[in-house]
Write a structure and sequence with these properties.
By secondary structure, the chain is α/β, with parallel strands linked by helices. The protein has 16 helices and 13 strands.
Length: about 425
């Protein structure tokens, strides 16, 4: 049977949200939908959930493979897709009910090869639409060298014409992280016709630090290495595309600088900002990548990128060095487990932590409860001091906002306690 669209779902230990994701697909207003779900060697109840749904719904094709990674699972799905169009969906994300219909209709009307829809983050940290994606999904025609595409590497808000994609021969590279960007941009460098679909919405779930599902909450040298390989693939593929017939890029040097800016920004935001979750090998790899990227960037590109981390005065990749010169000292006498998890999920990592108890880390100093206040004064190294109860989790942006306010000529003149109060108020108003 031929379907209008095939939805490829790689599944590995996705029992928590899999049923919700499958229900989202089954309840789309477009009924001609094939679900190709590839179980990548799950060890939880994922296979049972898949079997149950496949038994009830004839449009579900269930495939099981030995654990080989998400890229292999998606490539397996591509080979088994029979829909006119196809898209990719992970086991914890969803679409709004009419998204498939809207994307397929737009592809039919425009003859485009790729349709891109809006992205809405939900879950941990609240709900938020991606403003860059919102901008270009209003457009009927998006150029292949549109720099905004480089800032939307998510795989699931794109719908592809299956025949066209298979003719390109593009597959997901054997990476554990950032494989989606390499896949999408290699496809783009085959010069497809691209259109936006503003009415369709892909909803991307953000997980809590406790769930630990986010890659950036479990940083490793392998993940940083895969990130580097992915951006290298994009960079080299772009250069090769400049030599092809059909290349429309009028500013090749500027376009390559944008790729470097993307790589730099992702390195800082997705890895460096959670440096306390990294070991020494990973820190060294981040530093080497930072030095490599900055060696290729123009002074203007580097200046623009630096504006995105104004809360961090200096990018230091040695955790012991960070602890010697922290920007902020956080004080919490008796922290709970939830508080500690939220503290080390902060997006501004250049801080020192003074407490009576906690897991040993390079920036954590244990102080005895007796004469605590005087010992805190003696041990404080940060320019700003944040005293907290340590009982409840804190917003992951708190230290970043405090740092920005402290550096502001308008607000930096206030005492630390007033700045912290203002930061909390700001975050409460703008969740």
């Amino acid at each position: 049977m031929d379907y209008k669209i095939s939805v490829i779902i790689p599944a590995y230990n996705g029992e928590k949200f899999l049923a919700e994701t499958l229900d989202c697909v089954l309840n789309q207003t477009l009924r001609s939908v094939q679900i190709v779900i590839v179980d990548d060697g799950s060890t939880d109840s994922t296979p049972d959930i898949i079997a149950d749904y496949a038994k009830k719904h004839s449009n579900i094709l269930a495939i099981r493979q030995p654990n080989s990674g998400v890229s292999a699972a998606r490539n397996n799905g591509i080979r088994n897709a029979s829909g006119e169009y196809l898209l990719f969906l992970d086991t914890d994300d969803v679409f709004t009910p009419d998204s498939f219909e809207l994307m397929c209709d737009k592809l039919d009307k425009t003859g485009a090869d790729i349709a891109i829809c809006r992205v809405q983050r939900f879950g941990y940290g609240g709900e938020e639409f991606n403003p860059i994606v919102d901008e270009f999904t209003k457009e009927d025609s998006i150029g292949c060298y549109d720099k905004r595409l480089l800032w939307n590497f998510l795989v699931s808000n794109k719908c592809y014409r299956t025949k066209w994609l298979m003719e390109t021969g593009v597959e997901f590279p054997a990476l554990r992280y950032s494989e989606d960007g390499a896949f999408f941009m290699q496809a783009v460098y085959h010069f497809p016709k691209i259109t936006g679909v503003y009415g369709a919405v892909f909803r991307y779930r953000r997980h809590t630090p406790e769930e630990g599902s986010s890659v950036t909450q479990r940083i490793s040298s392998q993940l940083v290495g895969d990130f580097c390989k992915s951006l290298d693939i994009v960079y080299e593929a772009a250069k090769l595309s400049f030599e092809k017939d059909g290349c429309t890029c009028t500013d090749k040097d500027g376009y390559l600088q944008e790729i470097l800016a993307k790589a730099y920004t992702a390195l800082i935001n997705e890895f460096y900002r959670l440096i306390w979750a990294a070991d020494d090998e990973t820190c060294a790899l981040m530093k080497a990548r930072y030095e490599y990227l900055t060696s290729l960037m123009t002074a203007e590109t580097l200046r623009k990128c630096s504006l995105n981390h104004k809360d961090i005065k200096a990018l230091v990749f040695d955790k012991k060095e960070i602890n010697e010169k922290p920007q902020i000292t956080v004080v919490a006498k008796h922290p709970t487990k939830d508080f500690l998890q939220s503290l080390y999920a902060q997006s501004m990592p250049v801080f020192q932590f003074l407490t009576c108890a906690g897991v040993v880390r390079e920036n954590l100093t244990i102080i005895s409860a007796s004469n605590f206040e005087n010992q805190v004064k003696a041990a404080t190294k940060g320019q700003t001091v944040i005293s907290l109860s340590g009982k409840k989790p804190i917003d992951p942006r708190l230290l970043k906002v405090v740092s920005l306010l402290k550096a502001s000529p308008k607000f930096g003149i206030f005492p630390d306690s007033v700045i912290v109060f203002g930061a909390k108020l700001f975050l409460k108003l703008f969740r």
